[in-house]
What we know:
Structural class: alpha/beta
Number of domains: 1
Shape: globular
Number of strands: 11
CATH architecture: 3-Layer(aba) Sandwich
Radius of gyration: 18 Å
Amino acid sequence: MSRRFSLTAVAAFALSGTFVGAPLAAQRTIPLYDGPAKGSENWNYEEQRYFAKAWGVEVVSNVTKPTLTVFLPAPGTANGTAAVICPGGAFYALSIASEGEDVARWLAARGVASFVLKYRLVHTGADGAAESNDDLHGDRAVFAQKVTPVIPLAIADGRAAVAWVRAHAADFSVSAERVGIIGFSAGGTVSTAVALDHAPASRPAFVASIYAWTDPAGPLPVPADAAPLFVAAASDDGLDLQPQSVALYSKWLAARKPVELHMYAAGNHGFGMRTQHIPTDTWIERFGDWLGQQGFLKK
Length: 299
């Protein structure tokens, strides 16, 4: 079956029950590639979804076949903007709810068609989140050995995701010139890399990098066609990534490109859509304000 489909087909799936999800967010999962993803053609282990006690969130691990899960605005509310959402998880797992689906629902409720990207990850055991914690807080050399080969594949998935949504924009009533990308932590590696290095087909219209690990994106200069950038992190980031967010902001500022930074006093790493009863709970509202100020919430 062709991966191109109309909004009529989307509605038919929703009525038949093939779509699941929260109100205002009809959901469908679409393969990112027509066949095996380049560079991982022989990966054949099983993707898993479970509640990770190590992180206290719902996660997905062992992604071998990248996909986009679609959350569409309610009929009549779409504003023509779309966002590719890249959850974080150290490239061992994806914080699929707090940094993916919950973000997509929030954006869809405000008219933004949202696509949660499952990008390729390190092959882990039964609990990728716990394994990530062991390596991050134990032997960093082991961590680097595991993630280094996977990071370029994940970044390729980010570029392919933006290009796919742009190519299929008409199917979702969005503009190909209004497709952005948002990433958290390792997903912020992906969003930052796409912002810094893209082809015309994969250029994002806006970028958000939330407590991003930006070092793997490389020392590339800010491109001439750089998109507006939104950055958020917490000063008490437990992985000490906050300087990278400040550096990314400074890089955009020096290039005289539109950029906004929110550095919260507290919130730690991975605050996502969690409720902690502190100002980071409302970071996404500040992101919405910024999207509106940039013109992406207007029809």
